Write a sequence for this structure.
């Protein structure tokens, strides 16, 4: 005998039982997906904070999502407790927190940024005649994930797996120029170490340099990490804008003038944008 019975109200399945002797076969029948309003609103709030890489005011967030300011505030403060949202003390505006960055990194961990960046790195190496590096952030360090060395005998060398301090040179600047990254770095006990006489150790001046780097889309290093060496870096981003890595060109000051360094910075930005588009295409193919 086939019998059906509805489970308690609010349950997502109903059951069908068929008795065969002393045995009962239990079969679950999934019903239509239900949307949980509070979770839906929280997801839409996070989506707003993903846009444009800027801080958002409470009123404009509520307007974008189409909910009352009080409701938006309660949801944002709850997300803040879980590290998914940060509130900027001076302005009271909101931005994505480090918890959201960790989730994004986990989501994109299967994307091989090296494959996406390889052709652009090779082009940069051939055009500049200098060493090209790919770095990924690991907590308070940058790990060298790929090295493209030029054919010329005299060049800056690095090895895959080498770890650099997060505050070192242009690599550090592009990662710390991400919204909220420098503040989080300092709160976690990070400091600005003096690697050379040219290293900037004043936090306020360094923060201003990060704003310039964010506006340009690349950061420069004029003998700030190694004496006699200049470098430029730009961020490679995933499909939702998360920083997956950074591409860097590094060369000796004898060959890289300050004017040439700016041009290399622009070339790094273009290469990073190309690599970011490849990551996006690969992600779209994987999701299809």
């Amino acid at each position: 005998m086939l019998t059906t019975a509805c489970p308690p109200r609010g349950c997502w399945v109903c059951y069908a039982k068929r008795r065969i002797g002393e045995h009962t076969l239990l079969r679950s029948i999934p019903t239509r997906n239900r949307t949980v309003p509070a979770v839906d609103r929280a997801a839409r709030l996070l989506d707003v904070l993903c846009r444009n890489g800027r801080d958002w005011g409470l009123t404009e967030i509520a307007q974008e999502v189409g909910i009352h300011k009080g409701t938006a505030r309660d949801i944002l403060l709850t997300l803040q407790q879980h590290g998914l949202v940060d509130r900027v003390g001076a302005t009271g505006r909101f931005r994505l927190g480090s918890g959201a960055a960790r989730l994004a990194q986990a989501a994109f961990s299967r994307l091989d940024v090296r494959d996406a960046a390889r052709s652009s790195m090779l082009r940069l190496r051939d055009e500049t005649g200098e060493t090209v590096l790919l770095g990924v952030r690991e907590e308070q360090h940058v790990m060298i994930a790929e090295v493209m060395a030029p054919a010329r005998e005299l060049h800056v060398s690095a090895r895959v797996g080498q770890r650099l301090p997060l505050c070192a040179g242009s690599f550090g600047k592009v990662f710390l120029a991400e919204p909220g990254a420098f503040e989080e770095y300092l709160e976690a006990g990070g400091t600005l170490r003096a690697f050379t006489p040219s290293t900037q150790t004043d936090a306020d001046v360094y923060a201003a340099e990060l704003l310039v780097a964010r506006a340009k889309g690349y950061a420069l290093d004029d003998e700030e990490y190694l004496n006699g060496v200049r470098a430029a870096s730009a961020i490679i981003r995933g499909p939702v804008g998360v920083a997956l890595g950074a591409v860097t060109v590094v060369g000796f000051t004898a060959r890289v003038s300050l004017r040439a360094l700016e041009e290399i910075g622009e070339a790094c930005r273009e290469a990073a944008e190309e690599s970011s588009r490849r990551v996006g295409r690969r992600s779209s193919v994987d999701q299809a």
Remarks:
- The longest strand covers residues 243-252.
- Residues 50 and 241 are 8 Å apart (CA to CA).
